Amino acid sequence: MNKTTKSILDTSKKAIEFCGKHPFATGLLAILGIIGFMISIKGYSVDRDEAASTTKQVESVSNQIKTLDEKIGSSHNNGQFLYEEKVELYWNDWSGHPLTSWKEIEKYHQAEITIRGEGKTVDFSGILSMNCKNGRHYWVTASNFGGQISSVDKIEKLVPEQVIKNVYKLYCK
């Protein structure tokens, strides 16, 4: 054994003997051990509660996603539901109304859809032309609260990206 290891063992031995000779030190260490054990039990309990809470939150989000996925394509305002955009405590509902027949979409791989957005911050109506082969699109016309929108950038900021993705998913199968 080298000197450092021997020194550490001697110091440890002296500390143990000290605690054995002095009841106060032994009692204090026992109390600290019990307190540490109680803290670890409480920590475990808090950890379990947080895990259960996180699991509930994940299940809630999962159910919301599943509900929205089930809503996509369902009947909505004489069209098909595309997206529900949360706005503060309210929302904007987005729906699609196909102008192109399914046969034409299959034949030409081009779909024209009237997009309607109704809710807290929009009263949008626009015609979207979508290339079903590559997902590229352009706006034929667009208006919000009755006013014409001519800037593509303004339209893209107003219409959520998920609406465009759901149009592609729904009409360009």
Write the layout of secondary structure elements.
Layout: H1 3-21, H2 23-71, E1 75-76, E2 79-87, E3 90-98, H3 102-108, E4 110-119, E5 123-131, E6 137-144, E7 147-148, H4 152-158, H5 161-171
Antiparallel strand pairs: 1-2, 2-3, 3-4, 4-5, 5-6, 6-7
Structure description:
A hairpin with a 2-residue loop joins strand 2 (79-87) and strand 3 (90-98). Helix 1 crosses helix 2 (23-71). The chain is rod-shaped. It contains five helices and seven strands, in the order H-H-E-E-E-H-E-E-E-E-H-H. It is of the alpha+beta class. The chain has helices spanning 3-21, 23-71, 102-108, 152-158, 161-171, and strands spanning 75-76, 79-87, 90-98, 110-119, 123-131, 137-144, 147-148. The chain folds into two domains: 3-65; 74-171, no CATH class.
Radius of gyration: 33 Å
- Put simply, the count of helices is 5
Mean residue pLDDT: 85
Residues in helix, %: 40-55%
Look at the helices and sheets and give the structural class: alpha+beta
Strand content: 25-35%
Comma- or semicolon-separated keywords:
173 residues; alpha+beta; 2 domains; seven-stranded antiparallel β-sheet; 5 helices
Give a quick rundown of the structure.
The chain has 173 residues and is of the alpha+beta class. It contains five helices and seven strands; from the N terminus they run H-H-E-E-E-H-E-E-E-E-H-H. It has two domains: 63 residues; 98 residues, no CATH class.
